[in-house]
Specification:
Keywords: ATP-binding, Nucleotide-binding, Transport
Number of strands: 10
Mean pLDDT: 93
CATH architecture: 3-Layer(aba) Sandwich
Largest sheet: 6 strands, mixed
CATH topology: Rossmann fold
Bound molecules: adenosine-5'-triphosphate
Protein name: ABC transporter ATP-binding protein
Number of helices: 7
Pfam families: ABC_tran
Low-confidence stretches: 223-227
Order of helices and strands: EEEHEEHEHHHEHEHEE
Structural class: alpha/beta
CATH class: Alpha Beta
Strand content: 25-35%
CATH superfamily: P-loop containing nucleotide triphosphate hydrolases
Radius of gyration: 17 Å
Oligomer: single chain
GO molecular function, one term: ATP hydrolysis activity
Strand order of the largest sheet: 6-7-8-3-9-10
């Protein structure tokens, strides 16, 4: 498998707390990986290190073979904006903007005109089942609709990797099922890889692989088995 993203021998300590104790991960194009484990086991630190938000103390993060863990903060944040999409537990949409402008925002931040960015943003509304909701503000959307808008916003830049941190954590079971089905299928269709942290085994089961993290290490050995 040629890796779009790789984390090799990653370690991270906070004071005397070992959050990551030498973890490896290769993620291929259209590959989806769920990271599970008990509270405090290092899942978020792992995700944030792969996404270039947390710098590892040791090891490497490679995006298409390029080492990104040592880039300057400016270059790293430019790289994140261009190559990575993010979905968080509760959408983190801007409440004053209509849904289509929330989706268009990453493109406008990259310098695209509002008109063109909104036109591109609208293309994501049909695949995510959001037709007719383009003008709604986040406060006028259900939890599941808001998460689908957040998924559109993550995908609009056509990223190489989507990182999702408990993307269904605030949703009921039925809505969660619908959101994870769309997140995995639309991300795959777009050609991006997906790396997701979740507590929910039913959500993780939608991914190709499930990694179990315990005390900062990967504890299962089935990590390269594609379901
Ligand atoms: N910024 C920080 N400063 C100090 N300690 C931290 C920091 N971030 C994480 N830790 C510690 O590192 C360990 C791993 O934390 P992490 O958030 O990665 O775990 P997690 O598995 O995502 O937990 P949860 O499921 O509760 O979100 C924990 O012991 C946590 O307290």
């Amino acid at each position: 498998m040629s890796a779009v993203l790789a984390g090799l021998g990653l370690t991270k300590k906070y004071g005397t707390t070992v959050a990551l104790d030498g973890v490896d991960l290769w993620v291929g194009t259209r590959d989806s990986v769920a990271i599970m484990g008990p509270s405090g086991s290092g899942k978020s630190t792992f995700l944030h290190t792969l996404a270039g938000i947390v710098r590892p103390d040791g090891g490497e993060v490679l995006l298409q073979g390029q080492a990104i863990h040592k880039l300057s903060e400016n270059r790293l944040s430019a790289l994140r904006r261009k190559h990575f999409g993010f979905v968080f537990q509760s959408g983190q949409l801007l409440p004053e903007l209509p849904a289509e402008e929330n989706v268009a925002l990453p493109l406008m931040l990259e310098g695209m005109s509002r008109r063109e960015a909104v036109a591109r943003a609208r293309r994501w509304f049909t695949p995510l089942g959001l037709n007719g909701l383009e003008q709604r503000r986040p406060g006028q959307l259900s939890g599941g609709q808001a998460q689908r808008v957040a998924i559109a916003r993550a995908l609009v830049i056509e990223p190489d990797v989507v990182f999702a941190d408990e993307p269904t954590g605030a949703l009921d079971q039925g809505t969660s099922e619908e959101v994870i089905r769309l997140l995995t299928s639309v991300t795959r269709e777009q050609g991006a890889a997906l790396v997701m942290v979740t507590h929910d085994a039913a959500v993780a089961a939608h991914c190709d692989r499930i990694l179990h993290v315990r005390d900062g290490r990967i504890s299962n050995h089935a990590q390269y088995t594609v379901a």
